[in-house]
């Protein structure tokens, strides 16, 4: 018998060796880590007509691409501007090209270290993702997948690498925005634009000049000769038309200005008849600015020659509004009591296309020119502010633009349904553990409940959500802990983060058994396969305990080997971590090269004949989790003195052989299925309970009935 067992073991070892040989001697594309690419050939590919590619330079490093002497675009690497760690803890470096108008011309992956992509998703799919950017604009708000929202352009994600492409999208858009701002393609202003205000039509009270100037309804821009001279210091015309010492305080320009289509301003300033005429001539969303001045002419002579008023303009929200002769009307008279006399008085119409907001601050800019020779001249400008009084306009409440969510917030918002369902599942599991002594007294219910929970673990946590923990996660955490640690890296996948939190808590309270027995999708899949096979009476094969106990060491040796590799190269450790079939089974759903599929199917099919073979002997993640078993606070699996000597019922029934012949439970190997506890409380199955029951029955039979004598 022992010789047959050894023969089977050797046969299995040969089979495993063959699989590993195939798995780790695949062509390069099967276990691919993208090497750094030279960006210059890719730039030439994006700009086939380029005649010159400049050196990468600047505070925001970019290449300037020229055709002859004309700049036709810019290129940059995302790692030079925004190094955002992806799932592996390393950024995905990309080459991005834009034209001078801010349009994306191309995006190419230069280097990546993503574990999800390493062997499972070909680079062609990654290229297809970045190929969506040409034709979009830097100012566009781009979002990967998800529900459609306003003001968003949606681009397709990459199945199996959602976190990766979301990080890539943020790296591309943020880097492109910085480049575009540094080049002046888009404005760097973050000023909030006020919603369009409405002029209140019935606000009017008879007033005089002093009242309207005093409350700010009419504003004044006053310049003396000294102020103008000071403004030209350092210019070529510094010494032209300079005022003498006696003239320094003389008035150079006195300009009053107001928003004339405000009823309380226009009716008092122009009179009722002129105001009504003005309002009747204004088209919807047009406005009138009254300007009155002495001294330096705000009209100038340009409007006579070309119909352009080149000395004044109105500024609002960084928009400059200039006027032509068709926008101009003379003011013939001012009806306001106490008004001074003016050399020039005009109305200027702000046309609808300027989208002038009567409730937002605006400025009148007066341009002063000094002539230098017959043709050349130099300008400087002076500004005066205007704010419509609160009583004149209705300003809607400011609607602040929705702040852009961080990448982590976006991911959690997208996964809120999964997070809620997973939280409910964990609460159910927690309740099961707390009330286990009650539930084990109802074996049929507990078995059905456990099998249903395992189905949910496989279908939802595993296949739907990709929530399979891996030894790669452990190595990534250790690498991050030893370098620049950031929680953002681990928060990028909510399901994985929550499962790791649950694993940490349950390890502290009950050991690794809870995660491996209830929450691990591949462990659950193995157990369900074995349950079905037992239902159909398939013969089961279990190794003798002495052999079984020694095979436990394999997974710890694998863990140590992978850990050693990770210290030298995380990418290399990720490749050899393919001993875990998790990626093939759940993340990629068997859509990859045949040796990986063969290995995963082999580990699943072997469970037809024995339960959880991979978990017991090969799983490096289980080995890593069991190292924290010494921290376990509770020991709720009950044992009796008779367990092991002489009773061995539980040890024989433990389907993963986690109970030693002496009756002790090895919590490093236990998966908390609670089968031993069902036996422990079953007085028809547990020998010590059956023996106790027989003693009680004999005692009752031996009792002498008391005879009552009357």
Automatic annotation (TrEMBL):
The UniProt entry, under InterPro entries, shows: 4Fe4S_Fe-S-bd, FMN-bd, NosR, NosR_regulator
Q: Domain FMN-binding spans what residues? A: 86-179
Spans traversing the lipid bilayer: 419-440, 452-478, 490-510, 553-573, 593-610
Per UniProt, subcellular location reads as: Cell membrane
Quote the protein name from its UniProt record: 4Fe-4S binding protein
> What SUPFAM superfamilies does this protein map onto?
4Fe-4S ferredoxins (SSF54862)
Task: Name the UniProt key words of this record, in alphabetical order.
Answer: Cell membrane, Membrane, Transmembrane, Transmembrane helix
């Amino acid at each position: 018998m022992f010789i047959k067992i050894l023969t089977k073991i050797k046969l299995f070892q040969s089979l495993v060796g063959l699989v590993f040989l195939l798995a780790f001697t695949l062509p390069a594309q099967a276990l691919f880590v993208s090497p750094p690419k030279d960006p210059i050939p890719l730039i030439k590919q994006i700009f086939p007509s380029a005649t010159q590619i400049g050196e990468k330079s600047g505070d925001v490093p970019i290449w300037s691409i020229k055709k002859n002497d004309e700049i036709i675009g810019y290129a940059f690497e995302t790692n030079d501007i925004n190094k955002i760690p992806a799932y592996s803890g390393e950024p995905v470096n990309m080459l991005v090209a834009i034209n001078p108008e801010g349009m994306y011309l191309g995006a190419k992956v230069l280097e990546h270290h993503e574990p999800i992509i390493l062997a499972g998703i070909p680079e062609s799919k990654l290229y297809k993702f970045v190929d969506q950017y040409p034709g979009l604009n830097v100012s566009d708000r781009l979002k990967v997948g998800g529900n459609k929202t306003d003001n968003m352009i949606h681009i397709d994600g990459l199945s199996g690498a959602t976190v990766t492409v979301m990080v890539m999208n943020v790296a591309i858009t943020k880097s492109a925005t910085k480049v575009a701002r540094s080049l002046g393609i888009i404005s760097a202003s973050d000023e909030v634009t006020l919603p369009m205000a409405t002029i209140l039509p019935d606000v009017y009270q008879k007033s005089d000049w002093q009242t309207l100037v005093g409350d700010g309804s009419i504003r004044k821009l006053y310049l003396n000769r000294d102020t103008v001279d000071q403004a030209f210091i350092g210019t070529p015309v510094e010494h032209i038309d300079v005022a003498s010492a006696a003239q320094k305080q003389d008035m150079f320009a006195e300009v009053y200005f107001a928003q004339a289509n405000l009823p309380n301003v226009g009716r008092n300033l122009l009179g009722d008849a002129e105001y009504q005429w003005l309002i009747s001539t204004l088209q919807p969303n047009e406005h009138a600015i009254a300007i009155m001045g002495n001294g330096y002419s705000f009209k100038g002579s340009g409007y006579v020659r070309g119909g352009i008023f080149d000395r004044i303009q109105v500024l609002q929200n960084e928009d400059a509004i200039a006027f032509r002769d068709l926008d101009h009307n003379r003011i013939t008279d001012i009806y306001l009591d106490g008004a001074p006399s003016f050399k020039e008085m005009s109305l200027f119409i702000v046309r609808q296309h300027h989208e002038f907001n009567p409730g937002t601050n605006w400025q009148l800019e007066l341009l002063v020119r000094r002539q230098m020779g017959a043709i050349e001249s130099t300008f400087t400008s002076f500004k005066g502010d205007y704010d419509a009084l609160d009583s004149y306009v209705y300003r809607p409440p400011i609607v602040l633009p929705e702040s852009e969510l961080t990448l982590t917030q976006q991911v959690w918002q997208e996964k809120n349904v999964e997070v809620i369902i997973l939280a409910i599942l964990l609460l159910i599991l927690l309740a099961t553990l707390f009330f286990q002594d009650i539930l084990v007294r109802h074996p049929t219910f507990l078995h059905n409940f456990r099998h249903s929970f395992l189905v949910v673990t496989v279908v939802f946590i595993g296949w739907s959500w990709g929530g399979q923990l891996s030894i790669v996660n452990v190595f990534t955490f250790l690498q991050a802990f030893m370098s620049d640690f950031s929680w953002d890296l681990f928060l990028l996948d909510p399901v994985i983060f929550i499962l790791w939190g649950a694993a940490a808590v349950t390890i502290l309270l009950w050991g690794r058994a809870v995660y491996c027995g209830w929450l691990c999708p591949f462990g659950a899949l193995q157990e369900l396969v074995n349950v079905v096979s037992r239902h159909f009476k398939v013969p089961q094969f279990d190794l003798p305990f002495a052999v079984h106990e020694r095979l436990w060491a394999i997974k710890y040796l694998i863990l140590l080997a992978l850990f050693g590799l990770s210290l030298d190269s995380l990418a290399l450790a990720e490749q050899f971590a393919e001993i875990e079939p998790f990626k093939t089974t759940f993340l990629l759903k068997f859509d990859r090269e045949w040796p990986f599929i063969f290995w995963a199917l082999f580990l699943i099919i072997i469970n037809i004949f024995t339960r959880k073979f991979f978990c017991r002997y090969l799983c490096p993640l289980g080995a890593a989790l069991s190292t924290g078993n010494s921290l376990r606070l509770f020991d709720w699996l009950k044992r009796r003195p008779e367990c092991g000597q002489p009773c061995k019922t539980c040890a024989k029934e433990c389907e993963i052989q986690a109970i030693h012949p002496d009756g002790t439970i090895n919590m490093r190997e236990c998966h908390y299925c609670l089968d031993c506890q069902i036996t422990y409380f079953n007085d028809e199955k547990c020998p010590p309970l059956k023996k106790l029951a027989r003693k009680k029955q004999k005692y009752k039979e031996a009792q002498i009935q008391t005879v009552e004598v009357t």
